[in-house]
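Dear Dr. V.,

Thank you for agreeing to look over these. As mentioned in my earlier message, I'm a first-year student in the group and I'm still getting used to reading structure tokens, so any feedback on how I've presented them would be very welcome. I ran two proteins. I've put each sequence directly above its structure. The first is here:
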Amino acid sequence: MRDGDPIALQRTLYSSKNPTRRWLHRTRRDWLCQALQRYAPRSGQCALEVGPGSGVYLPLLASLFQSVVAADVEERYLQALQPLLASLANVTVTRDDILASDLPSASFDLILCSEVIEHVCDSKQALAEMARLLRRNGVLILSTPQRYSPLEVCGKVALLPGIIELVRLIYREPVLETGHINLLTSRCARSQLAHAGFDIAEQFKSGLYLPFVAEFLGESGVRFESWLEKMLNESPLDWLLWTQYYICRRR
């Protein structure tokens, strides 16, 4: 795998050699999969995934909905999905910018948007577009990193020239720049969701990264981080957790 290949990196995160890295991504994946199963309409209409990446969620979406659209502004991501689509007859891909979508209004019963809005310059506009694309009472399942979580703060240091090479040596696998240009606090995320016309039905936070514990304590470090994560969740210190999740309904 080339260090500069973000698509290949996404495919390996769930089997990372580093136990904390693997746990953080699997926890997010599993929570989102459970949310999709809970909120997919019984009649299984149409779903949209904004920014499908390597396609982790597309097989499940295809099993839950009659039709699925995977939309991304980056053509290379859509091209990388082609081998997967061969076995998913009800999934189509389209190049589309969520800041100014060409998709028709009120077309979808559910939208999944995981780890996307931190990559766009105007998350308010992106959320407004997602509200437009949803049918009334449709569901948005959203995840995005927390702005001041230790992983995001330490990540900025780890990616500095001269340090990133050391980090790659420690992890023994690709480490790339995140491309996170629009990190939100939970307060800001909730405000933007409300402004876009969403009511929050569920919210959750997960993923505690502790520097040095994550890199050098292996599975013991994960057990400690998992224990501490449970202590922090829904406490005044839950801003330390990496990922925030929202399940919302369009008004």
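The second protein is here, in the same arrangement:
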Amino acid sequence: MFHNKKAGWILGCLWIVGGLAQAGDIDLMNQFTFYGDNTEFFEPFRVRETILGQQFKSYLDGAVGDHTFLWGGIFADHRSAQDTATEVQPILSFIYRTDESEGVLGTIQPVARHGLIEPMEVTTLELTRPIEYGLQWIQKDSFLHMDAFLDWQQLLSPADREVFDYGGSAILPLDDLFAFEAQIHGYHIGGAMYGGLVRNNLAGGIGLKIQIHPRELGKTYLEVYALGSKDTNRPLYPGPTLGSGLYTKLSFSPDNAWEFFGLSWFGQDYMSEEGDSNYNSLGADGVYYKSSRTYEELGIRRFVQIESGVTFDFELRSHWIEDAWANSFRIVAQVPFDLGVMTVPFKKTE
């Protein structure tokens, strides 16, 4: 529910950002997102889920100097047709930006789960957690492409444990066809001040991406990752502390719109707290456990840019979870409409 007190606080933040950024460009960034994601899972590892809703974000992007910027605005998420409540969160960030780097302090807007693959972070987080709060550093140059972050989910209090996750992805292009990749994701629950159990989950690995662009076949990608995991102090956890897995993805795109892909997974005692549970050895009930895991997935994706930055994304997937079969689909439409508010020359300081 959107309260007057929260509305006043957010409007105050917008006024402050506008005032501080009055010496440079100010743009009003807006985007509507309409989404639906349905998974028909009845296996012990991941249960079925339907996510349906609409999101809206609007914030001022104000230049304070040549390399410093401020964001101030709101993010709203209305989930499902039955629930009338709308979750509203503030967008308030300090950004340091150059041609090759960007550092963010405050509200983070992750792209594709910071580049993490499915065993590290489940794809539904793109819809359920499209903004985060913490720190982020993005690097993109001829040598390295990197997205590193710290996302603080819950602060420590006498009633609640602290919760945060962290990590990132890095791509090191070797040449036009090959790239070395590395990923890591950590999840922490704890806080020694008030006692209680401290839990940690860590997953990571290295990979190789092969990119092929023959004219007669379109774009073809092959990714292979060797992953490892470590899970400590999980109550009644039946598995060993350390786990491993091999992830392979083959993707073929005949044009810039259609994509056909396949995934395969061979895991041994692997466990990632925020990863897709179909890759884990621990079941969704926290009790069922299968040490040696296999998982395969085939999918078709249609991603098109309609006009003026408006995009439509449709994905249909088939899943083989051990000896069982399941299906899922996703539909997402994004409608941006950014506005230039004002441009004022920077004031020189003596």
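From my reading of the second output: The chain has a mean pLDDT of 89. The chain has one domain: 4-342. Does that match how you would interpret it?

Kind regards,
E.
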